[in-house]
Amino acid sequence: MRACRKCHILTTRSTCPYCGEATSEHWQGYMVIIDPVNSQIARQMKLKMPGKYALKVR
Amino acid sequence: MGKIFVVKTQVGQEENVANLFEKANRRTGKIHAILAPKELRGYIFVEGEDIETIKTVIRHMRYARDVLDKEVQIEEIENFLFPPSAVANIEEGMIIELVSGPFKGEKAKVTRIDDAKEEITVELLDAMVPIPITVRGEQVRVLKKKEGE
Ligand SMILES: [Zn+2]
Description:
The structure holds two protein chains of two kinds. Chain A is mainly beta.
């Protein structure tokens, strides 16, 4: 898996399918957002889209 | 808004359990988010509508052990949500020791810091000719603030 450098979403692609940014294979920490509207964690991370994310990307 | 709880997992299965919660949610609903920080072994955070849902879900879940009764405040997990940079405490000119990799145990001077990649470039102190080596921020331990100090 790779992670987008900008939005942190996990993807197998070399370019993020959502924001077009380059992805990186160097990431750590795992986050699953299921219900962004009702999630404190999603709000804190400013995530509006359900999905699997990395906490840190470099 | 959801409530956040700590779920104990089998060590090494943190991501796995996070995915199992996502799967379980398709049946139960009421799970909003799951967090498996790299720094924590054997624990993850699960945000859901109530603790009962989480308790019910883990009853039949492999690798999940228990849920702690105390609700976690969002402020308490900020360090996990925004992990500090591995080069946060490193400055140019510092003397460091390499703690892993082929030069483990060698002392070196920091010559450059790459904040985006969290990498630093160092020159080994004992080398005849100073050759720059680039390593990850986690690979070093600071020995001295500046040369001579
Ligand atoms: Zn992206």
